[in-house]
Amino acid sequence: MSSGTLVFFLLSLSLASGARIKRQQRREVEDASGVTEAMGKQFFQTVDKDGSGQLYFKEWYAWFKSHNLVSDDLHAMLKSTYHEMNVQGSYVEEADFIAWFMAPHATQAPLTNGDVFFAHKEVAAAFFNDYGQNGLIDKMFKGKDFINFIKFFSYLREVKALNEALGLVDSMVTDEDLNKWRLWWAEIDSPPKGPRGKIDREQATEGFKMIEADMKPESEESDEQPAGNDDEPEEDATDAEPEGAGNDDEPEDLPEDDDAEPEEDE
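and the corresponding structure tokens:
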């Protein structure tokens, strides 16, 4: 083999290796991102209760507060994330939210801001419950009064897919699930309203509660761990002195400070 041929052969191997590395890096980025732009739109529309397309800080804070997401860590997170996405200065439009949601996270790339945001399991669970019982039902009914058996199955599939995408459960729809859903349908479409071969929104909400309860054990196991920390009672014992009693007032002042946040942005 001549020296020219050898150089060409080695150059070809180098280019091929570089291409493989780039493909692998692209796959790693894609695999790292579990949330999608569609999920970002669903979340924005869930929090934007008046449907104005403009999300003010008071709406942002009110959604967190309505779901009891008021710990110190979440309080700091909701403030910092709102400031990051608030390029308008006084409110956040859907396009601005999506741009922030899908952008690489400043310190945890290739994860996106949306990935890191929903890594807070309390936030993911609150969105799952809110959207699952409201926005997703709206999507299924599309202004109609009733849905049929097929639509009901489609709804349950989407509920389970959302739960998995949010990282709250890791499972696919199985034959066991389908058989279980048939029994749920028979139970829901029964007297006093049925059987009539169709269900209304109130009955569809019953279906959400059924599948939520069915997936509950795994969520409860993860929730029990922080609640069972042995350190908390010891801290309570040391804080039994007068100094500890005065610290309880500080978190209660936070909501009052938050309400002024939009005015500061202006």
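(Above: one complete record from the training split.) The chain has 17 helices and two strands.
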